[in-house]
Design a protein that fits this description.
mainly alpha; Helicase, Ruva Protein, domain 3; two-stranded antiparallel ribbon; 2 strands
Length: 129
Amino acid sequence: MARIAGVNIPSNKQVEIGLTYIFGIGRSTSKKILEQAKVNPEKRVKDLTTQEVEKLKEIIEKNYKVEGALRAEIIGNIKRLKEIGCYRGIRHIKGLPVRGQTTRVNSRTVRGNVRRTLGSGRRPAGKKV
């Protein structure tokens, strides 16, 4: 099991897929990294040599912001938006969708799966005398 950027990469996965277990690396970035390191993307992680693992570690550390540093940057960006009081910051504070999605019907997951009203919304008529 290879350990890159503080993450244990599953040994039975292909290297291209295994690198995506690192926060901040997706499929396209993984392909670029493997191309730079000249490693076969279809090779299994358990079949990598120590030199190949070191080469991958070196490329990721030099060129990409991953894991803790990336998480800290994202948190800092959100904090800045909240502090300046912009629209996106206010949406973050309220826990609502930030990127323009409608909230009338959808966005239940971001609002905590709230189901307030059922039916037409009309009030029932009072008792007849």
